[in-house]
Amino acid sequence: MAPTNGKWIKIDQKTIGPGARSSHAIAIVDQKAYSFGGEFSPRLPVDNKLHVFDLHDHIWTVVAVSGDIPPPRVGVTMASIGQIIYVFGGRDTEHKELNELYSFDTSINKWTLLSGGESGPPHRSYHSTTADDHNVYIFGGCGNSGRLNDLWAYDTVDGKWIEYPAAGEELKGRGGPGLAVAQDKIWVVYGFAGMEMDDVHYFDPDQNKWAQVETRGQRPTARSVFCTCAIGKYVYIYGGEVDPSDVGHLGAGKFAGEVYVLDTEVLEWSRVEDGLGVEDHPGPRGWCAFSVGRKGGELGLLVYGGNSPSNDRLGDIYFFAPCE
Q1: Which PANTHER family does the annotation name (predicted)?
Q2: What would the mean pLDDT of 151-173 be, rounded to a whole number?
Q3: Active-site residue (options: 21, 147, 285, 313)
């Protein structure tokens, strides 16, 4: 049975950091969370600095970097494998979709442009990224010709992109989906496909095929731009947009604040009792930066910033850990 209890910790920030923003990304390496991109005003990238938050000392610094420094962007994603962070896509200051893949070596603080142009996935923003031990996966997002439903993997050992078979019409192109690796499968959960979706699909690399699954239990309502993390066979989701704004990305829409967990073995959802409504709970929000990682000895979900129901950008940091 999935863990149905969890706890949130609001993390104090002892120094001034990058501040309030949404549509940004974070990735955790050891006890440091690296933040890149984002917006304070809708669709206007803030900067291209790489900010790092020490999860032990609770101090922000700006990394002095070298190499192929990415330009500012929103709707960007990040994932880490070992000491390397991978950054893909986003939308630039002229609202153009991007498709460059960068790596950042945290041991030497150096950016490297790995691919772009005609190689790799097409241009996109507000897609999703996750990783396993040596692959970085990219799914969906908003492309030049509409919402996408393609799945790609970047093999970090061979330095090559792999395009997986098309998902088919059952998995509609979408932005802001959940993406996670569990049980050796790549899971696509919910997202926005012209409307908020509540379907679940997975791709099985061993079988080289897609499957849509029927889930049961306490199913979350349809949503997009939520936080996602996989811990073992469990996929956790938090928050997200459940009703889009009438003015699209210029507005806030309606957000959820609950945590749910999907047991990918028995395909059952459970609501996690996590203290919704208490002081140290992050509450309803979406468009956050998030990453799975450890704080101290606990494995969980780090959430930084996002957009609030009042359309104000947030700059707080929370850590969620499941409990038995």
Answers
A1: KELCH REPEAT PROTEIN (AFU_ORTHOLOGUE AFUA_5G12780) (PTHR47435:SF4)
A2: 96
A3: 147
